[in-house]
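For this section, I looked closely at the sequence of one protein beside the tokens encoding its backbone, which the following lines show:
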Amino acid sequence: MHMPVQRNKAIVGSNAFAHSSGIHQDGFLKHRENYEIMSPSDVGIEKSDIVLTARSGRHALRHRLELLGYTYDETQKEEFEKVHVRFLNVADRQKEVADEDLHRIVSDSPVEVPEQYLLEDFRVTSSHSGQADANVRLHVSGETIEEAGVGDNQILAALNAVDRITKLPTYVKDIQTSSNGREGAHHVQVSVGFHDQSFNSHASDTDVVKASIQAYLHSLNQLVARHGGLIVE
């Protein structure tokens, strides 16, 4: 039925196997069974997730860095502490710290990401059957490209149109929308998967489809910047 599952849904929601508290993460990494009485794969979830936030401790940070290929032995304690301080500074400013943030923290490079993909315009329509159609126009490396896409709703149709332009071998891991009724703004968080990497971004706009496209493009721009240029596979 293509119905989204709430993150906080017991057992099958993504938060059921996500760990964000510092003490909780440390205990989970030492002995998984203390916090999970079943395997994520038993309910169709790929794997458990350590969510890095301002509450995460050194153990969780070190674990994620090792997964990304950054190791710090006993002779590099001072260097790791510098990374930990920069991590806390970033974590204090945003809800979660993504893998792409960690790459920048380790390299101590600027946070700004070049906009390889820039939204110029879009149009979306929906039919009585529920299917949506979208046309998206992007500015890509000095060139304007427009493509059409279809989907079960307007957001998915727009993102499918973007995929036809970028041709990147990515997939949407998660997309969450919320709104501020008083201000009329829609806030969208998107997590994009590329092989074993994740790129997370957010955007806000009074148009939820526009906010979704912008957040999606932010993630794709992070991906391209991380890999040093446009990717063709």
